[in-house]
Amino acid sequence: MYTGEKVRLRAYRMEDAPKAQAYINDPEIKRLLGGAPFPLTLNDEEKYIASLSAHNSSTYSFAIETLSDSHYIGGCGLNRLDWKNRVAEIGIFIGDKSYWNHGYGTDALKVLLRFVFEQLNMNKVSLQVLSFNERAQKVYHRLGFQVEGRLRQERYTDGAYHDMIVMGLLREEYEEKKDL
Ligand SMILES: CC(C)(COP(=O)(O)OP(=O)(O)OC[C@H]1O[C@@H](n2cnc3c(N)ncnc32)[C@H](O)[C@@H]1OP(=O)(O)O)[C@@H](O)C(=O)NCCC(=O)NCCS
User: Do residues 112 and 62 lie in contact, with contact meaning Cβ atoms separated by under 8 Å?
Assistant: First the structure.
């Protein structure tokens, strides 16, 4: 369990499944994540949670809960780990929208970055974000991520193609920012 100022990152539990399903099926969240266009069933979500294991070293998925009342508000984790080159690809969502814009996403990412650099000893964190997702980009910039490129017309959603922005954070950049 890893703790920040507002949230802790913990392992998923089977009882998170109904909320996780509702969060992921929310059309606004689905759009921002660029997810599959078909609603996730409760069974899908339960199977996903059952598949998570500490023994699987290619992905790590955390539930995000509030420190104040242990409310499960979203998830974050590593979608891809390249152990040889020491690059981790991360993702995050705050599914309870009443918690947006209150610093929970920034805090969860700080905790996740600490985990990636200080526990897994990665050298770089990378991510992709839809070009219209300005809130997420603001948070990534604040944490020191740099834009590394633009994948043109990479995602099709709501009848249009959208670019994906590729962002990255090097260990040395993380070290410079982590105590600010
Ligand atoms: C992206 C996300 C993780 C950010 O978490 P959060 O808790 O809402 O973010 P924070 O409160 O830490 O910071 C958000 C910042 O963006 C700003 N912001 C909000 N809407 C914005 C917009 N349209 N354009 C620019 N900045 C915006 C907020 O004012 C805030 O900045 P401030 O702290 O300087 O006021 C969360 O909103 C989320 O999960 N969204 C849906 C899924 C998603 O987009 N995931 C990322 C996919 S790459």
Answer: yes
